[in-house]
Specification:
This protein is an alpha/beta fold. It is built from eight helices and seven strands.
């Protein structure tokens, strides 16, 4: 066991979660890489270890209480008490409202909102004990409303209210809570959207970039850089904030 701070990053097998895990490792933290299936975490873990960092992979459903408790306890046992938490795990079940099923709604709420709640409640005990902590939860520009995403938009807006409330409750213990609301980020999740629309991923990204003031789409590393700041010592007076990282003004 080292003296490094320990971070848990959920949904870290790929995309934004993997980028955040790698960035926090480069910042000197030991990382618990959590995703639904443990084998899927292997690539992120191997990348961190190859770069000289320390990481473990854990399979867990963040919406399941027993899985969450096991994951946090395993992190504590193998790396040390976690004091940094990145709530990134998420799923899409897009559909227009009249076609959206109860399961489409419930599954999105379970992973995004119940997952963030369960993980934060489990980790805050270690943060309070340490009198220091950082919580960063992933929202989205979809929180402002998006066609075909009533479930996802509601969940991502909920993350913002959750973050602000947690910041108020846990602030006296040296714990900050902030949210990042990414805009258009080039990830595998969007690759699936391009496929559903019947266009190439490159065309999809190119068309999106035209609508973004900085004239490019975001990369997972853009979000990881912001997470790195929120988790730093220097960010101790920044809490309860939602930053839209979207290449232009959003809210």
């Amino acid at each position: 066991m080292t003296g490094n701070r320990v971070a848990i990053v959920t949904g870290a097998a790929r995309g934004i979660g993997a980028a955040i895990a790698k960035r926090l490792s480069a910042d000197g933290l030991d990382i618990a890489v959590i995703d639904l299936r443990e084998p899927d975490t292997a690539e992120t873990v191997a990348s961190i270890v190859a770069a000289g960092g320390k990481a473990i992979g854990i399979g867990a459903d963040v919406s399941d209480l027993a899985d969450v408790e096991r994951a946090v306890e395993r992190t504590r046992g193998e790396l040390g008490a976690p004091t940094v938490l990145i709530n990134n795990a998420g799923i899409l079940r897009d559909n227009l409202l009249f076609r959206m099923t109860e399961d489409d709604w419930d599954s999105v709420m379970a992973v995004h909102l119940r997952g963030a709640f369960l993980m934060t409640r489990a980790v805050q005990k270690h943060q309070v004990e340490a009198k220091w902590g950082r919580i960063v939860s992933l929202s989205s520009t979809s929180a402002l409303g998006n066609r075909g995403q009533a479930n996802y938009a509601a969940a991502k807006a909920g993350i913002q209210g959750f973050t602000k409330s947690v910041a108020i409750e846990l602030g006296p213990f040296g714990i900050t809570a902030n949210a990042i609301a990414p805009g258009f980020i080039a990830t595998d999740m969007l690759r699936g959207t391009a496929e559903r629309l019947g266009v190439s991923f490159e065309h999809f990204l190119g068309e999106a970039a035209k609508e973004i003031p900085v004239r490019r789409v975001g990369q997972p590393e853009d979000i990881a850089a912001l997470a790195s700041f929120f988790c730093s010592e220097e960010a101790g007076f920044v809490s309860g904030q939602v930053v839209y990282a979207a290449g232009g003004p959003k809210a």
